[in-house]
Amino acid sequence: MLQPTKVEFTGDALSEVKGYLHERIQALTDGARNLFQTKLPEWRRLYESRPLERNRQFPFEIASNLVVPIIGIHCDTLHARIMASLWKTKPLFYSKLYGMYDKDMDPIRQAWEDYLVYEATEPEELNLYEVESEWVSEIVRYGTSTMKVVNTQRYEDYFQPAGDGATTKDGNFIRKTVYDGPCPQKLAYQDFLIPENLSRWQHADVKIHIARLTYHDLLQRKMYGLYDEAAFKAIVDQPDRTSPDYVTKQRQEDADARTSSQGYREWDVHECWFCWRTTSGDFTPKIIVWYHFKSNTIMRGVYDFYPDQPFVMGRLLYRDDSIRGYGLCETLGQFQEELSVIHNQRRDNQTVANTKVWRVDPNSKLHEGYKVYPGAMLPADAGEIEPLSQGEVSQLSIEEERLSIDLAERRSGVSPPMQGMGAGAAQGKRGVYSAAGTLSLLQEGNRRTDSTIADIRYAHARLGQILSRQYAFLGLDSKKLAFFGTQAELIREAAGYVKSGKLGLTVNASSASVNKEIEKQNDLMLTQIINKHYQSIGQLIQSIQSVQSSPAIKDYFQHVIDASNKLMRGILRNFDRDDSEILIPEVNLNAGQSGPANGNRPSLVPPVQNPSVAGVGGGQGSTGMVQGLAGFGLPPGA
Predict the structure, then answer these.
(1) Neighbours of 116 (CB within 10 A)
(2) Is the separation of the CB atoms in 25 and 232 below 8 Å?
(3) Which of the 8 DSSP states describes residue 484?
(4) Which of 156, 504, 513, 626 could join 98 via S-S bond, C-beta 3.0 to 4.6 A?
(5) Do strands 506-509 and 93-96 pair parallel, antiparallel, or not at all (unpaired)?
(6) What is residue 585's predicted lDDT score, i.e. its pLDDT?
(7) Cβ 291 vs Cβ 270: under 8 Å
């Protein structure tokens, strides 16, 4: 378990840090109040398609009150496409090797990929699918969302009775570590404070996560030694809320669930990440401070021990010079309101036009409340009751609604959901592609949806890089490595390479071309090509070793082998094969023979003793051909 180094603030330094944090938190909170308390509840209402009033009273009681869920449709469609792009390609995180090494590094790369996939997909570990699904959903709806990846320890305490049935006061309790490692969590939209006038969140001088803690949470942190006794006593009598805050109440009302205020107490502990100068003033290291704003109390402070910033902020549509992006709730809000008005007006018009008003003789008893319905028997004289038309059918048509839907799709860039036609060739229709063609379009597409998916994939890759480096720098769990058997040692070796920086092991989001089905097809095709290459190289080697071949032909075949190998390695790299040097080995015809080799490669033919032995080019023999080939940058072989 990692033990971070505490930061001790005393005297004037303590007062300066408190003053700085109090001022920054107050400024950031005031600046974001309208965003969190006004816009955010409105965006949530638009996404859930809830009308402003339960029952419309205009133009008549219980008029049509439907909110057309255009925002929900677009958000859920884009969310499904992004999650499919991230999680339906294998591997989940793609590790790429750079440079040359004296051994086969592909097993190490593969072992590291397998370890990251296991940690990400295992529910008892990172449980990354659920966390990332909520994160992507919030990005799509609100334009911005933040995920934090910090090292976490979780424990469980057990009571174990003695074997003889006797018990002691303190000797029968066992504390077991159930998890120790990175823990990604999506931060609530209103619980992350950062300066707004920045184009990149990485440039912020302070990042603040508001941790909402209950009394039990505070007591548990004091028990584990995270908060000392004095800090606990300073804040325990000053809760920030005795009932859920405004945003929480709105969210609970949306789900028709409410939290009782009886015994409700909640504290806001601000987890602040920033740089602070040392006592000497010579350095400004990164530190993490937990600060309670209401009581002006520092709960804890440690030096930042993470290899990277643990935050990953994803954005949908970029806003000028701001870290906040445009979400579909904000972008399509007016479209949804207009579409709902058109739809409700058309329905109300049909209701009014189909409703009759009855004119009854004032001396008749029918006007006292006699109900008229189809098939009713009316005891009336001729002319005593007659129907009157209330309205006319409007010219509003469903085409106007379709126009608004089309405009909303053009603005968001989200077209209706569709799937590829499946494996096999296209059916000769324009725009109809096979599974491989559909994936290629996803990869090379230039629509706004493709750009949006690329932005989220970049954030996903950033998340994988943070996880990779935290596992390497903060340590691997030996118990979990036992599940990998013979791969355990390779995983440790890969972590060492990542930590030392000697291995260019970068984690990227898998592209559509790395999809397993397409990869299988590529491997089958490459197998045939490589087999033909091996056969042709073998035939060339036999020709070189033949005593009947002239020196010129042997030298030419040598260069053909080099050129063919180079071309084949380039093809393999285009197919994202990092082991091309192993799949296409160098040819060494002097293997098993004594004698020095010329340069970096052994000579394939002996020196020419008699230039007139003719190969080609008259009296020049093979020497002239070798010099001609060397003029094109090819090394002479004789």
Answers:
(1) 24
(2) no
(3) G
(4) 504
(5) antiparallel
(6) 85
(7) yes
386, 358 contact by CB (below 8 A): yes
Cβ within 8 Å of residue 372, ≥6 positions away: 358, 378
- Calculate Rg over the CA atoms of the chain: 36
Tokens describing residue 18? 């408190």
| Residue range 103-127, pLDDT digits in tens | 778 788 888 988 998 999 988 889 9
Contact 308, 14 (CB under 8 A): no
Closest CA to 25 of 33, 35, 34, 13: 33
Give pLDDT, residue 31.
92
User: At CA 232, angle to CA 230 and CA 234, rounded to 5?
Assistant: 70
Rounded to an integer, what distance in angstroms lies between the CA atom of residue 525 and that of residue 334? 51
Comparing C-alpha atoms, which of 475, 410, 473 is closest to residue 447? 410
Global pTM?
0.76
Give me the numbers of helices (H) and strands (E) for the chain, helices first please.
Answer: 19, 12
Kindly give the residue spans of alpha helices, DSSP state H, lying in 158-245.
Answer: 215-223, 229-235
**Residues 371-404 pLDDT 10s:** 777 788 888 888 888 888 777 777 767 888 889 8
How far apart are alpha carbons 557 and 25 in whole angstroms? 74
Q: Three-class SS string for 545-563?
A: HCCCCCHHHHHHHHHHHHH
The pLDDT tens digits for 552-604 are 998 899 899 989 988 988 888 777 676 677 788 888 877 655 544 444 444 43
CB 43 within 8 A of CB 250: no
Strand pairing class (144-159; 311-315): antiparallel
Tokens 């990149």 belong to: 200
Residue 3 vs residue 80, higher pLDDT: 80
Q: Which two tokens stand for residue 478?
A: 């030996």
Is 607 buried (19+), middle (13-18) or exposed (0-12) by CB count in 10 A? exposed
Task: Report the alpha-carbon distance of residue 259 to residue 265 in Å, rounded.
Answer: 12
Phi, psi of 619 (to 5 degrees): -75, -10
CB 166 within 8 A of CB 125: no
Give the percent of the chain with pLDDT over 70: 80
One-letter identity of residue 297: T
pLDDT of residue 506: 61
End-to-end distance of the chain based on CA atoms, in angstroms? 63
Geometric angle at alpha carbon 463, from 501 and 419, rounded to 5°: 125
Pairwise CA distance, residues 139 & 314, whole Å: 6
Choose among 297, 282, 140: nearest CA to 232.
297
Judged on CB neighbours under 10 Å (0-12, 13-18, 19+), 109 is: buried
Half-sphere exposure of 559 (CA within 13 A, CB side): 18
Q: Provide the pLDDT for residue 311.
A: 95
